[in-house]
Fold this sequence. Notes:
This protein is mainly beta. The chain contains 5 helices and 24 strands. The longest helix has 18 residues, at 13-30. The radius of gyration is 34 Å and the shape is elongated. The N and C termini lie far apart (84 Å).
Amino acid sequence: xxxxxxxxxxxxxxxxxxxxxxxxxxxxxxxxxxxxxxxxxxxxxxxxxxxxxxxxxxxxxxxxxxxxxxxxxxxxxxxxxxxxxxxxxxxxxxxxxxxxxxxxxxxxxxxxxxxxxxxxxxxxxxxxxxxxxxxxxxxxxxxxxxxxxxxxxxxxxxxxxxxxxxxxxxxxxxxxxxxxxxxxxxxxxxxxxxxxxxxxxxxxxxxxxxxxxxxxxxxxxxxxxxxxxxxxxxxxxxxxxxxxxxxxxxxxxxxxxxxxxxxxxxxxxxxxxxxxxxxxxxxxxxxxxxxxxxxxxxxxxxxxxxxxxxxxxxxxxxxxxxxxxxxxxxxxxxxxxxxxxxxxxxxxxxxxxxxxxxxxxxxxxx
Length: 366
């Protein structure tokens, strides 16, 4: 604030003039020019030489004063209601990301799926048929399985903090594995392929592996198949064995939505034909499965030559974790040195089977 000197009654005219001039100097030095006042309610100048008016500051605060928060930037958030917490809603009515308070978190009901995940059980699905096919990403970051009867394809992603798998997508598929038969899932590039049969020949259907959208029927060579088929890949070509010709490995090349027959070789018939699936870890392809429904003897075949002409078989006994039926065993990639044995077992209530669990057990790769 400017200093104002008082003119006394005893001051001479000369002294009074000096005091008056000094007062004007002080006022001029300490004044606020109207040109430095900033009425912008967004405060976009971000200046050290401008002064925001009270009205501009109030409007800035009242409208939030910042962008909505994201996972990578700070900003405005909104407190979630109990209903929004229960529904797993991401954004609130204002468009801002929702935050959870201890009260709403404590009030969230615990679902069967959430309870199973807390125990390390990866997935729960209603039992409608017992045909399964499995595969996974080469690094184990995501796994996929097909459930027969219900005709559903699932994608589960590994949580980077807990290591548990959480379902991200599921879709109904229109190309069904016939009841009692087992097909194969194969990942090539950005797609996942379901190989099965129509009761006469091998058929295939393709989905985007990221979200399981855009189901597309594939054109494939005519190969007789009336039961199971085993397929695997090196992420470029497809290799497949039909139950009709179990000692012949066929290599198919891929272009767009068409597989074309390229070559065949003689192999040892797969001993594990029920479910199990396959995966490619970037170096080797692995096949797996059990010889019959309910069996605990999981056979893992490591293909030392990608077409299957040379291979080694290893048998692992799956643990029986319940007295209920264990429908199937499968294999999945885990990391550079390990793989998962996956076993599907029933969950029963007082009446009968109500769900299946997929449990993953890490083992050293053969």
